Amino acid sequence: MNLFEKVRHGVVVSCQALPDEPLHGSEIMARMAKAAEEGGAVAIRANTKEDVRSIKQAVSLPVIGIVKRNYDGFDVYITPTTKEVDELIEAGADMIAFDATRRNRPNGCTLENLVGYMKARGALAMADVSTMEEALYAQQLGVDCVSTTLSGYTPYSRQNGGPDFRLVEQAAGVLNVPLFAEGRISEPQQVALLLAMGAHSVVVGSAITRPQLITRRFTSAAKRRTSADESEVTN
Ligand SMILES: CC(=O)N[C@H](C=O)[C@@H](O)[C@H](O)[C@H](O)COP(=O)(O)O
């Protein structure tokens, strides 16, 4: 079974913790991935070659690798150049996700030569896009699949608090490559809806693997209750 058959209609769990997050560390991310596997995840999305390597040892699921790296003066940070692609191939990533916007990249790299490089090296390429135009252009360049990861994270894309249902529905209806729904998916019913809209699979990150943010949803609800109580007393 190829990777796309394996992940079809399932949940990919993004296991990422940046250096400033409490769960940062490859050992911890490998345990997170193991928990996701036990919970029925069909694949893992992970950041850095170290995390990809450590997760590959811990689980038997396909791993979609990225390298988040900031270069001075550039907005693109998800696998911006061929250097990050090399790191992920070396770490054994089963697919490589990358920023597929048409914004400038460091070291003279372009979107076109980045995709060409991945294809030449035999890597599966997942295009992280923010708009329908970017999805169509990525497909034209020959990527293997598209993900809605960056909707709401480029200044010109739709900004909303939740998943970009409209982009998922439109893109799934038009693209010939599999479309992954990703970004701000926080409820199980959204997963069902996105799959019904035609998403090949759904990628969920923070709502499963960032406990500080999960905690915040509950503590915010408690605060809202407290302020409601206070206003009842004063009225
Ligand atoms: C925009 C960006 O940098 N997204 C990153 C991409 O890998 C991750 O920080 C997200 O956690 C991932 O896309 C999953 O999304 P969410 O955590 O919202 O379920």
TrEMBL record:
Q: What pathway, per the record?
A: Amino-sugar metabolism; N-acetylneuraminate degradation; D-fructose 6-phosphate from N-acetylneuraminate: step 3/5
Cite the GO molecular-function annotations of the record: N-acylglucosamine-6-phosphate 2-epimerase activity
**Does the UniProt entry include the keyword Isomerase?**
yes
What is this enzyme's catalytic activity, as reactions? Answer: an N-acyl-D-glucosamine 6-phosphate = an N-acyl-D-mannosamine 6-phosphate
Provide GO CC annotations from the record.
Answer: cytosol
Q: Which UniProt keywords apply?
A: Carbohydrate metabolism, Isomerase
| One GO BP | carbohydrate metabolic process
Q: Which InterPro entries match?
A: Aldolase_TIM, NanE, RibuloseP-bd_barrel
A Pfam family: NanE
Q: Which residues form the signal peptide?
A: none
Q: What does this protein do?
A: Converts N-acetylmannosamine-6-phosphate (ManNAc-6-P) to N-acetylglucosamine-6-phosphate (GlcNAc-6-P).
Similarity comment text for this entry: Belongs to the NanE family.
What the entry lists under NCBIfam families is as follows: PRK01130.1
Protein name (Swiss-Prot/TrEMBL): Putative N-acetylmannosamine-6-phosphate 2-epimerase
Q: Which organism is it from?
A: Paenibacillus beijingensis
What gene does the UniProt entry assign to this protein? Answer: nanE
